[in-house]
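Same chain as my last thread, 142 residues:
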Amino acid sequence: MDVTGVLAAVGVLAAASAFGLWRRRTDGAVKAAPTAGTEQLTATDLGIELDPRATLVQFSSRVCQYCGPTRRVLTELAERHAVAFLDIDAEERLDLARRLTVLRTPTVLLLDGAGRITHRVSGPPRRAELAAAVGALVGADQ
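reply #2:
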């Protein structure tokens, strides 16, 4: 038996397992945007008027299996908090997706009233975390 081959297989399995565990831990986590408050979107960028309190933006694609369920969560949150929600097809708005470094769908952005990105989610969002972030942002205006 070739020891090098076995060691290589074990190494690949260990790396894949580590990646899977990391992905499970970080997928859908609501994170303050790394450049919170510096990246800003306008009504011209989005094609809709920004809500004066908050706007939820989802980047989707046709092949995304989690985009439909994410859309339902965001629609519910937008209705509950009376904020705007926009679903953008990443393929149709490749310019914006590249500018914002959208690497996968769904990607969700939470914008404040001025259009600054305050939070970002890669993958299907964790509902409770996103609801808390929206609530904190909207509550800050009241």
